[in-house]
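Cross-check.
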Amino acid sequence: MKRLEIRVQYEMAGAHLRALVSLCDVANYLERILEHHRAIAADDRRSLDLLIEKAMTFSEPRGFRAAIESVEEGRVAVIAEVKRRSPSRGDLAVDLDPIETAIDYVAGGATCLSVLTDNEYFGGSAADLGMACKSVTVPVLRKDFTVDARDICDAALMGADAVLLIAAALEDAELADFLVLASELGLDALAEVHDETELERVLVSGADLVGVNQRDLLTFEVDPGRARRVGASIPTGVVRVAESGIRGPEDAGALYEAGFRAVLVGESLVTSGDRRTAVAALVAAGSSGTRSG
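Predicted model, tokenized:
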């Protein structure tokens, strides 16, 4: 009996240790993503002033935030994502055609698109974004790790209509400066938060379009109640977007009832056998609910 107890305790301890190691690996992995992008930014010798000047003349934004606000009552504004792979799920759709996917999304009723441009970790590219932008008329978000002002200029030059600003990856001064620059270039900025503290930071910085990511940055686990909890603190006038963990119409409908005008959905759409129909089902998910915020 003692040997059995010792073996069970040993196995439990081993499992606990492996879980801790795995958690540390994920944390280091996330930091490596940011370090990768910061290293690229540090090596970028392009003149920021010249880039801003070029971006201002090139950019013809289509109004990402305005498109979300224009969606009629009872319909969910779906931001459909062009996504090849995920750090948490691995390969999702490595042979994805960005043009075909974008067209299917819009045919299904997507209000906007989101396109991953990070290649190292998500398999995306600037070419994916460019092709998607040219193939549809709806606004497009450049989904990437924005760590430098040049990233925002590049988004405009790629043809994007909005950029992603992740609160956890940026200092307060960076958030404020990047929001101003995006506005000057005519781009909208989706400020992504994971809790009330980050929400307060982006609101103070001037964000009027906030995405609540339900995926934990350290564990990659999805907390389906996170958007509703954090969303309760988002003031009127700020457009709310729920991100991650939206598996289908039921999730989208519940978020709509919780006051979220829009949902950003990637994995469940790119892995769907019929992306057009999958988007349409999400769009219609708000028809039985009543928006509460």
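The longest helix spans residues 2-42. Confidence is low (pLDDT under 50) at residues 1-26, 289-293. Passed to J.P. for a second look.
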